[in-house]
Amino acid sequence: MVKFVISGGRPLKGCVKISGAKNAAVAILPGVLLADSPCIIENLPEISDVVAICTALRELGATVRFIDSSTVEIDPTNVNSFYVSKEMTQGMRASSYFLGALLGRFNRARVAPPGGCDFGVRPIDQHIKGFEALGAKVTIENGMVEARSQKLGGCSIYLDVVSVGATVNIMLAAVKARGTTIIENAAREPHIVDLANFLNSMGANIMGAGTNVIKIRGVESLHGTTYSIIPDQIEAGTYMAAAVATQGDVTITNVIPKHLESIVAKLAETGAEIEQFDEAVRVKMSVRPRKCNVKTMPHPGFPTDMQPQIATVLTIADGTSIVTEGVWDNRFRYVDQLTLMGASVQVDGKMAVITGVDKLKSAPVKAVDLRAGAAMIIAGLMAEGTTVVEDSGHIDRGYERVVEKFASLGADIHRETENDFIDSLAE
Ligand code: EPU
Q: Among all residues, which ones are annotated catalytic?
C-alpha cells in the first residue's frame, strides 16, 4: 500500500509543468487500434492508467515501444484478438473504450465491464444504445460485454445523458462505419475534441467535436499518425486549488487557459489573483479564501473532477459554501475524511454545505478515489501537523510524479510504501 506523508502549513511557491491529459490519453491509446500502420503518441502522462492500457494493447498483440517517458510508438497491425479480460485492464473505467475501438476494427469486441472510481452506479447503457444504433448486437454474459455486427452503419444517436464515455465509444466505433453518424447531446469536454483531432489526423472525417452535435463520416481506413496529447485540465486545476489553499504563488505551465475558465472563475471568487498567459496561469492568494457556491456540470461547466479539490479549499473559507454535484450520484464519499481533519461539512444527497473553519488539523486519512486523493493532499498541505494519506496508489492513476511536483513547490511531502515500512523495521 502506498502512503503519502505531508507536513502542512507551507505556502506553495514556484512553477509546475502540467503533463498530458489522462482522460484524453485513455481514449486515444485504444483508438490506435483503428490505424493500419504505427502511431506515435506524444505528451503521454506517466500514470498507472496509461501503463495499464499499454499493457492491454501489448496483450492484444500490438507492439508498444516507449521512445521516452512521454512518447510511445504503437504498431497495432498484428493485433488479432478482440478479447480484453478484467486482468488486462485492472478494473479501469476506460477499459470500456476497447469496446468501441475493437468493434470499429474487427466488428467484434469482448471486454470485461469497466471499473473505475466508485461514485455510485456507473451504467454503460448509453454506450450500448450507441453500438446498437450502429447495427451491433450487444450481450452481457458471464461477466463480459460482447458487441458484434456484420458491418457497422452510420446512424443518428441522441444521448439521454451527456456522457463522455458514450461519446468517445460511439466515435471510436463509428469512425470506420459505412455512412454518416450523428451524435446529438454529445459531451463537449476538451478530451473529446482531442480524440476527434487525433482520429482526424489519421484520416477520419469528424466534425463538430466540442459542440453538442458531432458528425462522423465513415472512412474506409485510418493511417498511422504522430499526435501530441493536450495538457491535463484537472491536474492544472488541482495545483491551482492547492496554491489557493496554502496562500501560495504558483505558476502552472503547459496549460491551455481556455480549458481552465470555469476553474479560474471559481477560484477568483474565493479571492485568488489569477493571471493568464498564452500557455500558463499564475495563481496568487494572500487572504483567507472567501466562501463560494459551486455546481459541477458537464463541460463547459465546472468539472466534477475538480469538485473534491475545491470543496477542500472551501473547508477553511470565511463563511458557508454550497457545493452541488451535478454529474455523479455519489461523489462525496471523501467528506468523512475531511471531517476527521476538523472540517465542518453536511452532505444531503448531491449537495454539501461547508461551514468554513479556521484551520484543518492533521489526521490519518484515506484516498477513497483518484480526485478525492488529490483533495486529501491539498487538505494535508493546509493542515497543522503531519497528515498520512493511505491508499495513495489511487492518486498515481491520474497524477504524474505528484509527490515530486508538490515537493518542487516547497511542500513537505514524501511517499512511503509498505516495503519502506518493513525496511525501517529491519533497520
Ligand atoms: N451515464 C449514464 N449512462 C451511461 C454513461 C453515463 O447514465 O451509459 C451517466 C453517469 O452515471 C454519470 C453521467 O452520465 O452520471 C456522466 O458520466 P460519463 O459517461 O460522462 O462519465 P465517464 O465517461 O464514465 C468520464 C471521466 C471521469 C469524469 C466523467 C465526467 C474518463 C476515463 N473518465 O467518466 O473522470 O468524472 O467523465 O466528466 O474520461 C476522473 O478523471 O477522476 C474521472 C472520474
A: 117
Class for the domain spanning 22-228: alpha beta
Distance CA 259, CA 241 (A): 15
- Domain positions in the chain are 2-19+231-294+306-426, 22-228
Minimal-distance CA residue to ligand 1 atom 23 = 165
* Identical fold, 2-19+231-294+306-426 and 22-228: yes
Task: For residue 364, give the 3-state DSSP assignment.
Answer: strand
Of 23, 234, 306, the residue with max ligand 1 atoms within 8 A of its CB, to mutate for a pocket test, comes to: 23
Q: Which of 10, 2, 1 is nearest to 386 (CA)?
A: 10
Q: Which residues contact 313 (CB under 8 A, 6 or more apart)?
A: 241, 244, 245, 267, 270, 289, 378
Mean pLDDT of 87-105: 86
- Count of alpha carbons within 13 angstroms of residue 223, beta-carbon side: 4
Please give the average per-residue pLDDT across 5-21, as a whole number. Answer: 98
* Reported confidence tier of residue 2, pLDDT bands at 50, 70, 90: very high
Among 118, 164, 169, 368, which is best to mutate for testing ligand 1, by the most ligand atoms less than 8 A from CB?
Answer: 164
pLDDT at 115 over 90: no
- Rounded to an integer, what distance in angstroms lies between the CA atom of residue 249 and that of residue 418? 34
C-beta of 165 in contact with ligand 1 (< 6 A): yes
CA of 270 to the centre of ligand 1 (A): 27
> Is the CB of residue 160 below 6 angstroms from any atom belonging to ligand 1?
no
**Closest to 67 (Cα-Cα) out of 88, 38, 24, 92:** 38
Rounded-to-integer distance, Cα 228 and Cα 258, Å = 18
Beta bridge partners of 153: 178
Which atom of ligand 1 lies nearest, measured to the CA of 121?
Answer: 11
Binned at pLDDT 50, 70 and 90, residue 91 comes out as low
What is the C-alpha to C-alpha distance for residues 173 and 154, in angstroms, rounded to an integer? Answer: 10
Q: Which fold has domain 2-19+231-294+306-426?
A: UDP-n-acetylglucosamine1-carboxyvinyl-transferase; Chain (3.65.10)
Atom of ligand 1 nearest to the CA of 168: 23
pLDDT in tens, 179-220: 999 999 999 999 999 999 999 999 999 999 999 999 999 999
Instruction: Give residue 116's pLDDT.
Output: 64
